[in-house]
Design a protein that fits this description.
By secondary structure, the protein is an alpha/beta fold. The chain has 37 helices and 31 strands.
Length: 1050
Amino acid sequence: MNSSNNPPKKVFSLSLLKPSPKVGGSSQPSSSQSSQPPPSILSFFKAKPITSSSSQSSQTSQSSQTSPLSQKATTSTTTTTTKSSTTIGVKRPISDIIDNEDDFSYLENEQEDYYSSPFDYFNNSTRNNSNTNTNDNVNINRNSNINNSNNKINVKDNDPYEKYEDLGDGAYKIGNYKVKFPFKPYACQASMMSRILEGLDKKENCLLESPTGTGKTLSLLCSSLAWQEENKKKNQRDLEEKRKLSLDSKQRMIEKKQLIEAAAATTASSTSSSPSKTSPIKQEGTTTTTTTTTTTMTTTKSISPIKQELQVRTPSISPIKNEELDLDSYKYEKGLQTDYCGTGVGKFEPKKIPKIINKKPRYGSSSSSQSTTLAKTQNDELINYENDGTQKFIKKKSPTIFFCSRTHSQIKQLTGELKKTPYRPNMVVLASRDHYCINPILKDVPKKLEKCKKLLIDHGCRFKKTEQQSSLAKSSEFMGGGRKEVWDIEDLMEAGRANCECPYFASREMIEKADLIFCPYNYLIDPQIRRNFGDKVSGSIVIFDEAHNIEDALMETSSFDSSLEELIEHCYQHFKDCIMNSRTMGMISNEKALAIHYFYKLIESIIAWINKKVQTLKPIDFEKHQNVWKGEKILIIFQEFGLNEGNYHDFRDHLSILFDDTDGTSEGGNGKEGGGAALLIASKGKASIGGNQLKIDPIPQRALILLESLEKVISMVFQNKGWIDDYRLVLQKASSFQANGGKRTLQGTKWNYQFGIWAMSPRIAFSSLAQETRSVVLTSGTLSPLYSFPMELAAKFPIAAEMGNLPDIAQRAWIGTLSHGTKGTKLICTHGPSEGLDFQDSLGETILQHIELIPNGVLCFFPSYGFLEKLLSRWDETGILKKINSKKRYFYEPKNQREFVQTLDNYREEIKQHPNKGAILFAVCRGKVSEGIDFSDEYARGVIVVGIPYPSLVDLRIVLKKEHNDTNKKGITGGDWYKLQAYRALNQALGRCIRHKNDYGSILLIDERFTQMGNWNSLSKWTRSCIKNNRNLNTSLLSLKSFYDSKKQI
């Protein structure tokens, strides 16, 4: 392999830690070093000290060119120098390296073009060190179609990852770890677990696609929990080792001290007992010295010099009691240095100051009342130092595992999979008030957040317990080893009703002791919510399941949207009314009054800007106008609002004051959970602290929630000014019609104004999360193509792979394409052809003939609600819908959540009641049916997809995102991104068919574009291995019938 294609090797010299000279664009080690791997930076700091300024590596490389005599001299000099350095024992500090101008820049600064190519995110071996060639590669990759074979990611071979050793008793050795698994792992499961363990070991991010039905969730849980379990054991071993070393060190200190005292006592005894045989002159000198010593001893109450010195030394300066020393670093010129006085007692005087290994707080530095002092070591482990100098090491905490999914129904499936594993960690399931609330008063309230907070302020909630009253969080029932050691939302709600305690707040209190936390995406990607976890996120392991939507979720949490009406009615008017009410303003603190004035002025300036700019909006459609600002222009607009880089922190400070409850909110209020700018008002209209009181809320929760969302985005903008081009400020104006005498007329026109700050890139939110964690694992059954994620998220994913399905997938899944329907009508589901009645009628007849062959339930997906409604209307007119209903009762996916739940229940019940006939559910891609719901076995024996679900270009966000990617030189093009969105939604719908290892079913892809093999590269890996290209209706029907006939024989 050409060396120019390899990444530069960083070779270090033990003497100066300098990179060796580059040869041919890469650093090569000298011949004498080639047999050994280069030492790491950490090994350098653990190595023995180096004192010579000449490099040892350079000496070695020149040795072949010198005479034997010079070689001998060089060796002798080096040996002498090293010996002297070792004797001193001073290890070279990092400051010396910096002072000597050693170049470490290459360790921190990546090449400018590192992210230019999709391959660079996954395989560094494809990097080209030539700037010219790299730029050429950028142009090729950006202008080529995403299906080009040159854009395939080079991932490591699966064979090494699929290997494992059966240890017995349900345990398997995968990599260097013992993983407990409920059954013998499949090759794809072993491969996935091996990659996850590697990523956690190396603190690297993982990007793994694994089809549904391959045990993906079990692999994620078992591998991550096995790593966490081993990490806890390692921390315990490290703790015991440190304690042992500390005790050994202390024992050596005691022994050293005893030897010194023994030697001093022996010398003193022999001197005092032996008769004087010195000359008169020496005797006179001795007498003088003795007299002086005696005088000194008299002033110190006749205490021996050794005891006197030990008493005079305070604990704060004692080298033995206060500092753990490298005793070998002492240097004595003539053994023990002594100053023999009349007593002949030797005085301990080391010539060199010893190197302090672990520097402890000096005694006396804190108040005498404190018994212990806490300090941090380099690896962030806390150590207690008692006053007697004893070290008390505290075990390092193992990383918390956050297992995130998009919906609560998916989280319920995750806890169900955890029950199958042998692992029983302390866990908690986090959910919103909408799912956890058990208060009958809020039973029928659709969005409980605002109502719950208001209830806590106004009257209090009888289910909200104080920390002292709380019992669910402290109960061992929901901990590892308890009766409910693995539980879900329903279990905690049931216990909450039984104990009359709110499960929402109980789950929050369980976070501190949890090793495994199940939660939705936004709990971690939203920085405001993430702050509530405290230090649990730091160094954690974050797993995003069903991560195909993570990019959209990240952009959404980085954006802000509000109508002008909301700003006026829910914010501006309330702040104005509060300021105008002198009685209210007189009762609140000065800080809160200042905060109310601040937001009144801020919202007023935003409203004034909107009213000024609506006159300049550009018309883009009938009674629809808009304008978009980007880049530095956004900062100029913020300046008009009164916000800039120097004062945007005031926004958060004032908002936190409004959330403060010190002015008198409901008991147990804790800031954002139960807080608000509430006041206690006496029932007779006077302020009072006791007696009958009414609570008023001058600033409603809706206003605070809106401001909180705005503050989050404002902070993101100023904290990431380098990415200001990733934002768009949008102002839209559109008309709506109001009822006027029962008729919709132009006379009832109302203009709606929408104000938004939109993030066009997910990297803004992802970067703030990734820098806090140990590893982020993105996994789903529909991530392909993988290369877009590291480019969109601006993060490295060194471990990336598309896992295959189970070996028998081709026998369990029938996947066919279809380009022509009845009467030979070409089926192209784009805007123009799909408007034709012939197309609509042929499509209906084609679906009808296929569902006659499919048993049980069928899911039929369309690109959009509009497309579905148009077809159902036509089929109802022509009688095709009636024919479909006679074969299988039809249902269609509604937009309303309550209606959807009822529709889904009716669909399942119909299949149970009539298993042979079954039912068909018409749905849309990106809808509720397409993901998050388990349609296993008879509930989705067949899946039909009509068309490719490209996002609507009427949506301004889609248009702006495409434009943004086209201008971003280091990302994927707008066209590539647009196609990725379509095929990911398509792949997600296809995943409804095969849900477990024994499941089977058929997938029909209706559109002429599906017969083009170039488009197959955008499908998931497992579907590409099963697909059959059926261009006409008869071929498709015969193949499908053969597939289901074979299943009847089994």
